[in-house]
Amino acid sequence: MIEVKGLRKSFAGKAIINGVDVELQPGMCNLIIGTSGSGKSVFTKCVVGLFEPDEGHVLYDGKDFTAMSQEEKKEVRKEIGMLFQGSALFSSMTVEENVIFPLDMFTDWPTRKKLDRVNEVLERVNLKGANKKFPAELSGGMMKRVGIARAIVLNPKYLFVDEPNSGLDPQTSGLIDHLIKEITDEYKITTVVVTHDMNSVMEIGDHIIYLYKGQKEWEGNNKEIIFSKNKLLNDFIFASEFLRDAKDMRMLEETGKIANDRNMAELTHDDAPTLVPPPDGKEESGEQDGMEK
Amino acid sequence: MKFFAELGRFLLMIKTMFSKPENWKMYWREFMHQCAEIGIGALGIVVIISVFMGAVSTVQTAYQLTSPLVPRYTIAQVVRDTVILEFAPTLVCIVLAGVIGSKIAGELGNMRVSEQIDALEIMGINTKAYLVAPKIFAALVVIPMLVVLAAGLGIWGGRLAGTATGIISGDDFDKGLLASFDPYNAFFCMVKAYVFAFIISSVPSFYGYYVQGGALEIGRSSTRSVVVSCIAILFADYLLSALLL
Fold this sequence. Notes:
With 293 residues, chain A is an alpha/beta fold.
């Protein structure tokens, strides 16, 4: 498990992350969501050690990552895989060379064994036969899949994924989401996905953390998020009229099912957030859900 | 103040690049790759510059030595010492600062902007050691070789131009080359080559590694790295001349 305690990070005096406490659950897809500039990426980069936090602690299985020496951090990082927003593939290397790179660097396996492992993970991400292609020859979705293959080739305990759907069409986005979910379940890894794609939230959000202005505003899962009465969260997830309508429809369809799932027979459509401001004009403060802050 | 902040950051980069490699074989492979990139990549321009540099030196020295009291082989002496002391190390390294420096800054800058450096960091690799150190060590090995080659080709180019234009005979040129040769000049040339090699590789690495932004910033950092490298080479050239000659 990854525990984040009191994390703070500022740039040029401006607080980007302002005291975040969170536990990223093992074996689950943990989604960090929020508007642009809410601090999602900075939070993730602090957790993986690309940024030094100003205050706070990040604990990997109880070990304080922020207090470790560079050498100790390197050992922890060998258990981390990460898919970057732009895939971050080495452009001068083929798909095979990209994926085999961590094996070359950190194992002394014979070449045959390394190639077998590369083929295994490429097959897992449905890229069998793409070994000799260069990143420039790949589509956006394929590049993401190569990035995932490279991230999991060393069997990491933790997988971080930054904006997996950026620049992808909805269909490909769905495939990537499912792939991330399948890999998380299959390899029993702790996955942390930074996204603001609502399809991802609903599809793979086992555990969701909503960040707002550098603070944790809401925490829950993809079943609870739809019923949240948090105004800020609702403003974010149902930003468009279409989604608001879709929400109403989905709630009508799913209220009963979710109520059963949660063993909360008392849950009714009345629990849904008020999308139309109340007659007196007062808006809900956004701090009503049970798991907030 | 900004200068000192950048200098401190530069020194920290150099310090942190010395760490135990995660895998010696991979680092060696990267080192050899950089040797080939720097050496073979710059070979053509070094050959062309060196030959013409020597040829022009011969013609211009002959133009200035008009007195009948000065023997013709003096032209070869002047060409030899000018090429060894100044042209081969300084001129060639200034050109290399442009050729190699922009390439290093561009490569690292692009890796930074496209998050490839972050990807390596996440894997647990010391990116300064893996990306910067091989470039600097490769430059320290290859650039002095290129300077020696440039000195040889420069003198040969001078002889070629001298004999082809009838300024000086081949025998006179050879006689001048051997007359009162001071091996210390060759030592001085090599000292300069090593110092300049460090500047040519480390300064662009610094600007490329720490670039922030996008394509425009990569271009700017590349240009800046070349300008700073050239100024640093000229400054070091003066300093070494004042100290060692």
